[in-house]
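Sharing a chain and its predicted structure for anyone who wants a worked example. Both blocks are below, sequence first, tokens second.
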Amino acid sequence: MRFRLTEEQRALRAGVRQLLERRFGADALRAAVARPGHLDRDLWRELGAAGLFALRVPEARGGVGLGLPEAVLVLEETGRALLPGPVLATHLAAGTVPGAATGETVVARVDGSLVEWLDAADTVTGDASGAVPLRSVDPLTPLHRVPGGRVGVPDPEAVLLTAAEQLGTAARACELAVQHARAREQFGQPIGAFQAVKHLCADLLVRAETARVAVYAAAVTADPADIAAARLLADEAAVRGARDCLQVHGGMGFTWEAEVHLHLKRAWARAHRGGGSTESEEVLAADLVA
């Protein structure tokens, strides 16, 4: 089976990327890092007006009426752009929480024992009573911990869409590494001419494209085992990809002027959502012995 994007899907992805580049470029990213925990409500409403949250709400109910594959493409772009805010939670709640589809209502979501963006949210899906602030490694992902470690069965759609966001991070890390390897010169030539750097960039691309195939396929089949495999591959591609991107950049990658370290921190934060490595491995193991 060949998983090729349709013309409409390619146009959707390009449109979302253009919107995010226009409304959340480098300057906006820096401003967001300088104000951790602050959510740009104007941007949120603009995303709602563009149909990002209502993507899978039926047209008869005022939504866009698309499916899971299109949602994967959109969440891949938000992950690539490091867009802050509870994008996934609001998207999942668009069909049930009034105002979520239009971006008027910001929705947080209890995910196991963690809640992202609780203070900025208008409503929360799940029981967040007693949640306490938790220091987050990612300045753009404020966290709260729910006492008692309430762990339930992860929502397969949430697991897959998290994998899509991780795929966006992996792809962006690959782009940044290649750009730097071409531009940075040492000993009179680009550092990309050195074999060790070539190998890092090649590994980045292989992991990102392997994860892409798995995530896109899982969006079509919606099979729990496919989703688990996609999540495992996407988490690895995002975390290892961002780390290798840092390696290509050297010390520069750790500075606040570069966005590379932000991709690594976001990948780490997402990897702790429900359906992470241990849970997805259990799903795959159960499927193998079934």
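Comments welcome. The chain has a mean pLDDT of 93.
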